[in-house]
Specification:
globular; 257 residues; alpha+beta; 38% helix; binds flavin mononucleotide; 7 strands; NADH Oxidase; seven-stranded antiparallel beta sheet
């Protein structure tokens, strides 16, 4: 009898352990848990500024969006990190990335640090001119292209395409576990083009520095990239150049040993 109780406790705790391990997973292959209908996904994407160049989404892309569903990110761990002065002291550019994937929790923390919402009125960890919130963050991954929906802290699949090869002219961008792509959204800024592009650049700088400091705190490697063919990347992302502009990219990963 006592043995039976022990075996039951062991089985339950083992199951609990593996269940918790699952939460530490990387970006899933598909995401049946929070799967939404194809229509929901497409509508939400359009609203949040990641509409594709084409009016009609090709069947392959629609299938990818449907299979993945929206990925709800775990809550960011706001009680983590080293003191700010130490993070500033450690901030640096690193160009050597391990191929190891980042756990979903780190991706969640990273995106929130970059420009997640940090106040009830919807303002962010990074400032933007007149609170335009015009810098969209895309995540390029071997599994595809994802869009950060900061309002519900989730990742929306956009394209089943690995666009990392277009995120920089240096080899390491092809294989870094993920590359953040900062995209200015003209529709969110009602100003002359020159002024808008000035704010695209300044506002991206704040996001990028947040990422640098987060990486300094978490011992991750990162480098902000301006040396790339921005038009080609936008094209690969199937975004309309009348509505969007790639500003900079930023690979993030564990440092190579
Ligand atoms: C706007 C901008 C664009 C950059 N573009 C690149 C780039 O394309 N490739 C690269 O390896 N480093 C790039 N860097 C990183 C700089 O080379 C780096 O910040 C500089 O050498 C100083 O090193 P530190 O960041 O470690 O202080 C860029 C930095 C900035 C601010």
């Amino acid at each position: 009898m006592f043995n039976k109780i022990l075996i039951t406790i062991y089985t339950i705790s083992t199951l609990f352990f593996f269940n918790n391990c699952k939460k530490e997973e990387e970006l899933p292959d598909s995401n049946p848990v929070s799967k939404k209908t194809e229509k929901d996904s497409v509508d939400k994407t359009a609203k949040q500024g990641s509409s594709t160049k084409m009016d009609k989404i090709p069947a392959k892309t629609a299938k990818f969006i449907k299979e993945f569903g929206t990925i709800s990110l775990p809550d960011p761990r706001k009680d983590r990190g080293i003191p700010l002065m130490k993070a500033l002291n450690n901030r640096k550019t690193s160009r050597k990335f391990s191929l190891q994937q980042l756990p979903l929790q780190i991706i969640s923390d990273l995106l929130w640090a970059a420009s997640g919402i940090n106040r009830p009125e919807g303002k962010m960890t990074a400032p933007t001119a007149a609170n335009s919130q015009e810098i969209e963050i895309y995540l390029a991954h071997e599994k595809g292209l994802f869009y950060y929906q900061r309002k519900d802290h989730s990742l929306k699949p956009v394209l089943e395409k690995d666009v990392r090869v277009e995120t920089g002219k240096q080899k390491f961008t092809d294989t870094a576990p993920l590359v953040l792509i900062y995209v200015g959204n003209y529709q969110k800024m009602d100003r002359p083009r020159e002024k808008t592009e000035f704010y695209f650049a300044t506002d991206t700088g704040f996001v990028s520095q947040n990422v640098y400091l987060f990486c300094a705190s978490e011992n991750l490697a990162t480098v902000v990239i301006g040396w790339l063919d921005k038009e080609k990347l936008l094209e690969a992302m199937e975004l309309d150049s009348k509505k969007y502009k790639v500003v900079l990219t930023q690979p993030v990963g564990f440092p190579a040993k």
